[in-house]
Amino acid sequence: MHTSVSTRRTFFAVLSAFLLLADAQAAVKDGRYLYVVCPGIRNYLEFGRAGILVYDIDNGHKLVKRIATPASGEEKPDNIKGVCACAATQRLYFTTTKKLYCVDLLSEKTLWETAPPNGTDRMSITPDGKIVYVPSFEKDTWNVIDAASGRLITSIETKSGAHNTVVSRDGSRMYLGGLKSPLLFVADTKTHEIVQKVGPFSGAIRPFTVNSKRTRAYICVNDCLGFEIGDLATSQKLHRVEVQGFGRGPVKRHGCPSHGIGLTPDEKEVWVVDAFNQKVHVFDNTVEPPKQRESISVREEPGWVTFSLDGKLGYPSTGEVIDTATKKILTALADEMDRPVLSEKMVEIQWRGGEPIATGDQFGVGRAGQ
How far is 310 from 264, CA to CA, in rounded Å? Predict the structure, then answer.
C-alpha cells in the first residue's frame, strides 16, 4: 500500500508539533525572537489557537515553542488585547478583556494575574518596567498598575472609552487614546495626572503612535482611510493624510478603514493599514505632510502593524514578514501544523547569555536618535 503525499505531510506535521511541545521548556538560545500572543484576532482560534508563540527571527521565523498560560488554558480563551515586555525585569505582560497577566520570561511561568476595575484593553509599560498603564475595557478610566505585584496604584479618568496606550521612549509620558473622544490625552508618569490634551482630531481615536522626540503623534481615526498628525508641542492637529487611489468598502473588524499605524524605527516611513483592500500603505515621512509611496498586498484584512527593533522587518497583523527596504514578503507566520497565524499582539525580545536584553513594542513607536 502506498502512502499518499498528503498523508505523509500530515504525519510529519503532527510529529513536528509533538517535538515542538516536547521542547517547550527548553531555554531560549541567544538571538532575536518574536513573541506572538493568540488569539490575537478577536477570539478566533483558527489564527494560531491560544498561547504565546515564539518565533526565531534569525532562522526564517521558525516556530520554536508555544508557551501555555492560564488564559490559554481556559475552555473558551478570551481575546488577547495587548502585549508588552521589559528586559530589565525579565517579564512579559498581556491583557484579555478582563485581566492583566504577568509572565516570567526565564521560567515561562505566569507569576500573577489581576482583574482591574472595568476590564482591560491594550496597555503600555514604562521603559524601566515599573508601571503598566492599563485601559479599562472601553470605559472611563485607565488603571495604573504596579508591574512587580499587579497592585492597583491609582486610576485616571478621561471618560473617553479607554482603548489604546502608548508610552514615550523616555518614559515620561503616557498617551491615552479612547474610542469615544477626538482628543488624545497625555499623562505624566510620575504624577499619574493628565497634563495635556491634543486635538481635537476629526473622529474618535483608534490606533496611534508617536515619534521618539515627543513632537508628533500619528493617529488613525474613525472614517479615515489614512491617518492624521498631531503636534505634541502645540496640542494642535496638523494634517489629515488620506490614502489615494484606493476605494473604500465594508470591513470585517474594527469598523474603520485604517486600524493600524506604525513608524519605522528610523521614523523615515509611516505604514498604515487598509482592511478593505487588504493592503499596507507606505508613506515617506521625510517630508511634511508624509507622501504616499507604495502599497503592499497581504493575505487577510490587516488591523495592526509594527516593526523589528532594527527596522529591517515589518509585521502586519496578517502574519507576513516584510522586508522594509524592498517591501517584499519574506515569509509568513505559521503554527505547528503549518496553518496561518494572525495576531495584532506581538513584540520582539532579544536574548544574550540566557537573558533578555532588549524588547520592542507593539505600537511601532519611533526610535530615531536612540
Answer: 9
- Type of residue numbered 148: A
Task: Kindly tell me if the per-residue pLDDT of 17 is higher than 70.
Answer: no
C-beta separation of 302 from 347 below 8 A: no
Mean pLDDT of 8-37: 64
**Grid coordinates 508624509 are at which residue?**
290
Residue 4: pLDDT over 90: no
Rounded CA separation 260/272 (Å): 6
Query: Residue 107: which residues within 8 A CB-CB, separation 6 or more?
Result: none
Please give the angle made by the CA atoms of 19, 113 and 45, to the nearest 5 degrees: 45
Contact status, residue 276 vs residue 255, Cβ threshold 8 Å: no
What's the CA angle centered on 185, arms 183 and 191, to 5 degrees?
165
Taking 70 as the threshold, does the pLDDT of residue 275 lie above it?
Answer: yes
In whole angstroms, what is the distance from residue 127 CA to residue 86 CA? Answer: 7
Average pLDDT over residues 229-249: 98
Distances (CA, A) of 142 to 82, 128, 258, 261: 14, 19, 24, 22
Q: Which of 46, 43, 66 is nearest to 55 (CA)?
A: 66
- Which residues are within 8 A (CB) of 234 and not within 5 positions of it... i.e. 6 or more apart? none
pTM for the whole structure = 0.94
Scan for cell 478593505, then name that residue.
276
Nearest to 200 by CA among 176, 173, 225, 236: 236
DSSP 3-state helix, strand, coil percentages of the chain (rounded to 5)? Answer: 5, 45, 50
Look-up of cell digits 521560567: 107
Cell of 80: 488577547
Span 301-324, pLDDT tens digits: 999 999 999 999 999 999 999 999
3-state secondary structure of 52: strand
| Tens digits of residue pLDDT in 41-76 | 999 999 999 999 999 999 999 999 999 999 999 999
The C-alpha atoms of residue 64 and residue 26 are separated, in whole angstroms, by 9
Q: Return the H-helix or E-strand segment holding 223.
A: none
Beta bridge partners of 139: none
